[in-house]
User: What shape does this take?
Amino acid sequence: MRSTDGTDGKPWAPRTVAVHAGARRSQYGEVAEAIYLTQGFVYPTAEAAEARFVQSGRDEFIYARYGNPTVAAFEDRMAALEGTEDAFATASGMAAVSGTLCAMLRTGDHVVAARALFGSCIYVLDEVLKRFGVEVTFVDGTDLDQWRAAIRPGTKAVFLESVSNPTLEVVDLKAVAGLAQAVGALVIVDNVFATPVFSQALALGADVVIYSATKHVDGQGRCLGGVVLGTREFIRGTIEPYMKHTGSAMSPFNAWVLLNGLTTMDLRVRAQARTAQELARALEGHPKLSRVLFPALESHPQHEIASAQMGGPGTVMALEVAGGKEAAFRFLNALGVVLISNNLGDARSIATHPATTTHQRLPDTQKAELGITEGLIRLSVGLEDAADLLADLTAALDAA
Assistant: This one.
C-alpha cells in the first residue's frame, strides 16, 4: 500500500495524495489500480480461514460486503486526503449519512441537528431516527444561541452540513464543535458543498466527516458512492460492524471509478469554483433575480465565517428568480448549456428547482422557514467556459 510520504520523508501535498495514496498494485505493476471484481476470497488452509475471521489484517479480505482491495485503496486515499485515521466507503452518500447515524445511536439518545439539510437527511433524522426512539432537536444552524440552548449533558451527537443544501447557509463549525465537545457529543459533518479540496472540517473540530463521493470525487455523472471518515476506533469499531451486516458497502467497480476521479478532482473543483465566483459576481444585482447566494460574495450572510473556515468558495450557488415558480420554470426551460437535473458537483453545470424536486416532500411552512422559495434555483457550476455559461444564464433570465 502506497504511503503519503515522499522519498525525503516529507508529507505529500493534497494533490499528490489524491493521485497516489493508498495504491495497491498486483504482481503485474499496473499503472491504473486494478478492479478486483470478486465477492469472496480463497484461504490456503482451514486454519487460515479461521484466523482471518478472528482477526483480519489490513490487506486480508473475507467478503466484498466487508471489504475489497479496490475499495480499501479508495478508503485509504480519502482518509489520507482528509487527514483522518480511517474511512469506510459506502454505496451512496445517503448510505454514509444514514449508516453513521444508525450505527451509533440508540433509543433514548439525543441528537441536535441544523434544520437546513438535504431533504433525505431530514427524512432520516425526523422520520427514521424518531421512529426508533431517538430524540432529535432541530436548530437554526447559523444561530449559536440555539445550538447552546439545545446541546445538553448527555447529547450524543450534533449533525450539520458545513454549507447547507440548497440555501448555502454556513455554520460556524469551530464554535458548534466547541459546544458539542464540552458535553462529549460527537460532531458529524456532511461536507459535500465544502468539497474535499476546500475542506478544513477536521481542523475546525469535526469528529466524523461524510461525503457523497457521487459529487465532486467522481464529478462526472458516472456512479454513486459515499464515504465516512474518522478515527480508526470509530470507523472499525462502530461503522464497519453496522455497514457490513446491513449491506451498504461500495461496489469495487464504483471504487475504481472514484479512485480515477480523485486524480483530477483538485483541478476540476478549483476551476469550477473560479467560474462559480465569476458568475456569482456577474449575476448579483440582476433585475430578474431577488438574490444570489454564494459564500464568496460579501453580501452572503455568513461571508466572514465562510472565508475563515473554507479553503475556497465551493462550486454551488443559489439564485432566486423573481416571479416565483412560473418564472423559475421559464428560466430553467430556456437554458441551453446548463442541464436540468438534481445532482451537483458535476463537470456539467446543473440547475435544480429544490421546491419541486430535492425538497418537495417538506411542508410549505418548513420550506419557507428554510428559505426554499418557489423561485429558488440551485446552480452547480461545471467546467464549461465561463462566458458561455454567463450568456446562457442571462438569456434564460431574459426569458423568465
User: Anything to note?
Assistant: The first helix runs from residue 14 to 20. The chain has a mean pLDDT of 95. Residues 109 and 134 are 5 Å apart (CA to CA). The radius of gyration is 21 Å.
